[in-house]
Amino acid sequence: xxxxxxxxxxxxxxxxxxxxxxxxxxxxxxxxxxGGAGRPRLPGSARIYGDSIWLLAxxxxxxxxxxxxxxxxxxxLTAYIRANEQLQxxxxxxxxxxxxxxxxxxxxxxxxxxxxxxxxxxxxxxxRDRQYLGRLGVQRPFHWAWAFLGAIVYxxxxxxxxxxxxxxxxxxxxxxxxxxxxxxxxxGGIWAAVxxxxxxxxxxxQLG
Length: 208
Prior knowledge:
Shape: rod-shaped
Number of helices: 5
Mean pLDDT: 86
Strand content: 5-15%
Radius of gyration: 27 Å
Order of helices and strands: EEEHHHHH
């Protein structure tokens, strides 16, 4: 191997593994998996955490925050119920159609649009992160398409793959994602409780 050969993974000249890392001037101790079945290990100095993976790990917080923009006002529903009661009392035919979206204000539309934007951002970040790992030399990085199932799915899968080639490193984004996901669940639970209390009070006041 000449000094003009660029750094990279090449067949191990000593046959101890499928490939060995050439740093541009000499062979290093970095080897691929035994028998060539595993992914080649990354050099210890490899920067395995790019900006995209940390943004992905924090994304669940932003996703849950959008639900706090929604406010439910049941006045249109209670008016519908009262109108039907009056029709029935007078022998008329009750109205059979009610648009449930009338209970939601503009915050609902904003939350939906932000949710779609965050989903698109999630896919783009996963794609960029996979490209980043490819440039580092990670073979068969976790595919970005798994991000369609959620940020935490991609982050966990990515962490497992990176840990295999950079142990003991690789799991930090996964733990960060799990922590933010737990916070998001708590936030969602609080929002649901607040919503139930609000709906109960509204129905009690308006239909009392």
